[in-house]
Specification:
Layout: E1 3-16, E2 19-25, H1 27-32, E3 38-42, E4 51-59, E5 62-68, H2 72-78, E6 85-92, E7 101-108, H3 113-121, E8 126-135, H4 144-150, E9 153-158, E10 165-166, H5 170-179, E11 182-188, H6 191-203, E12 208-211, E13 227-228, E14 234-235, E15 242-244
Parallel strand pairs: 7-8, 7-11, 8-9, 9-10, 11-12
Antiparallel strand pairs: 1-2, 1-6, 2-5, 3-4, 3-6, 4-5, 12-15, 13-14
Length: 245
């Protein structure tokens, strides 16, 4: 059951340009969370609205999130240090349903962190896990070593071609789907990327689960800020953020 917890920060360090990895201690959130869920963080006393951030990894009693500094809330969060405490509501939302069999995991940009938790969770049921991770450029590549530790294959793509495959995640994804044999594609990233992935999965008749990133206020389904027209006005915070498509 989701609740509010006061959690101690264990570490909060930059891992790329304007991207931070934060580890906090919370036995309850760690025990209750599933891949694809998120936490809602109060970023300073003067900000009424919490910031939703996906869970990137769980180990024992600690929870890891990876976030990008985009506004005043995440800027405040980036200045917090080990030993400081956070007011956290979570875990929230519905996560991925991971079947047995070969799985493709796709992450784009800051949508990559929650897919690490998905990749870690597949070790209980998946036969082979392939991760495709897309970024704008070499300086934005994150979590590659962590994915390599839990996946059978990790494919990196960049828009400028300075790292990995030159182009978008859809290029290696289609090559894999043509080969066949996969049970599902799990994805999180920019909506334009998600749309292309959904079209490919439909073309090759492969089930697809996408995690949506939407602005939200309450995080518990009351305010309807995150209702998504493309998904019959379903609320991303409680009906998602993961949807079958």
């Amino acid at each position: 059951m989701s609740d509010v917890y006061i959690c101690k920060i264990l570490e909060n360090t930059p891992i790329a340009e304007e991207i931070y990895s934060l580890l906090f201690e919370c036995k309850n959130v760690a025990a209750q969370s599933n891949a694809g869920q998120f936490v809602h963080i109060k970023c300073g006393k003067e900000r009424l609205l919490r910031r939703p951030i996906s869970i990137s990894s769980v180990k024992n009693d600690s929870v890891r999130i990876v976030y990008e500094v985009k506004g005043e809330g995440t800027k405040w969060l980036s200045k917090q240090k080990a030993g400081d405490v956070l007011d956290i509501l979570g875990p929230l939302g519905n996560g991925f349903k991971i079947p047995e069999g070969d799985i493709i995991i796709v992450g784009g940009g800051i949508g990559t962190p929650p897919m690490l938790y998905a990749a870690e969770s597949t070790t209980r049921c998946a036969h082979r896990v392939t991760a495709i991770l897309g970024f704008r450029d070499k300086n934005k590549v994150i979590l590659q070593k962590e994915f390599e530790a839990v996946c059978d294959e990790v494919i990196i793509t960049t828009d400028d071609g300075r790292e990995g495959i030159h182009g978008f995640v859809t290029k290696p994804l289609e090559e894999l789907l043509i080969k066949g044999g996969f049970k599902v594609v799990l994805s999180c990233g920019p909506q334009i990327m998600q749309n292309s992935i959904m079209q490919l999965c439909k073309k090759y008749n492969i089930p697809c689960q996408v995690s949506l990133e939407e602005r939200m206020a309450c995080g518990v389904g009351a305010c309807l800020v995150c209702a998504c027209e493309e998904y019959d006005m379903k609320r991303v915070c409680v009906d998602g953020p993961v949807f079958d498509v």
